[in-house]
Design a protein that fits this description.
Elements: E1 2-8, H1 15-27, E2 30-37, H2 42-45, E3 49-52, H3 58-70
Parallel strand pairs: 1-2, 2-3
Length: about 70
């Protein structure tokens, strides 16, 4: 199993490039777990993405997303 864990502020990323990366990952059976810091478009462009608004929630949100993917 292959998992790419991505943590980003998503500042100035090109949505079409990110969608392409997600598409290629899907073709290669690589799961992307993406965490956006703040109010980002991460959940819109990654099939397994989530925003974390408070840095204090980062560890638990990241661990829960990763654990969910491993089940």
């Amino acid at each position: 199993r292959k998992i790419l864990f991505l943590l980003t502020d998503a500042d100035r990323f090109n949505k079409s490039h990110v969608r392409y990366v997600q598409k290629m990952a899907d073709k290669l059976n690589v799961k992307i777990v993406a965490i956006g810091m703040g109010d980002t478009d991460v959940p819109k462009v990654f099939s397994n993405g989530e925003n974390v608004k408070d840095v204090g929630d980062l560890a638990s949100a990241s661990f829960n997303k990763l654990l969910k993917e491993l089940k």
